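Support reply, case 0932

Customer input (verbatim):
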Amino acid sequence: MMFQIHGDAYWAAAQANTTGRFMSPMEGHGGTMFFYLPVLLLGLFPWSAVLPSVLYQTLKRWKDYWRGRAFSSPESNLTFFLSVWVVGLLLFFTLSATRLPHYIYPLFPAATVLAAIWWKRLLAEENPVGLTTSTRVLIWTGYLFGIALTFAPAAFQLFMKQIAKEFPAAVHVDLNWLPSILGIVIVLGTMLMRHWMLSDSKRHLASWAGCGMMLIFTVVLARWGLPVYQQYFVGPPQELAVIAGLNLGKDDRLIQFGRKRPSLSFYAKRKVHFLGLNDEDLPQHLSAPGRKMAILQTPLRGQLPETMSEWKVVLDHGGFSLLSSEPLL
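Our regenerated output:
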């Protein structure tokens, strides 16, 4: 259908952004073969702790399922289907050369149902298969996650210069107590979950501990963490793109220098030309008729070509600058 509507234009885009992304890393989004392991363990934490055991116990019987001997119950059938769903998607995107965390989001519904089935068994059986393995995965994942959060402010300061190159306003961020509080919540919640999972009489409390831990984590992150991330990291160039889109005509051009930010096309509601400061196509964009505007990190203004020395600064905001080839008034 897309090919019928767009013809060769769609075919070219599919080659670049579908098969192209699979065959080679694009925009620096590579990573190792184990890239998605922490994504899955942390993205579904703490329920992800049960997945290694469930997947192993289910898929090791694949011959029985293939021959139709293992479908003794609807739950058994469902478990095998969900396991193939999770492992299949995980392997597919692991083989892709371009890797981003959200690529494996389609396997999360299956992983969630698998975790629910295992927790049902935990409450119903005295000694469920995989209990020891699951508690070990929980402990290692939770402790490493919590400790990493606790030391996040120190790591942030250590790598401040590298972070500021991409997000100049990051130098004004004070992480303060937030990551440490979240780290302590994760460590304590993990300890309680493990303790109650191994208890014969209080296992039902383990799921409450996990839910409570992640509820606190989500509320604190949403209330105090995400606004900081929006204000100092992702918001400034997006807000400048909105202003540029409102002030550019149909035949004008919007240029973005630095690392490509595809979302700016959405906020500007127009095509954005993503260029490097030494891009060989830059002269033809600068000499094109009509007004030109550019979004870039403020520290890069000193590296602009001489032909842009007369451009006007429309606005400096959050470490980014919006420039215009002509005055707006």
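We compared this against your earlier run and they match. Two observations from our side: Residues 204-247 form the longest helix (44 residues). Residues 239-324 form one domain. Please reopen the case if you see a mismatch on your end.
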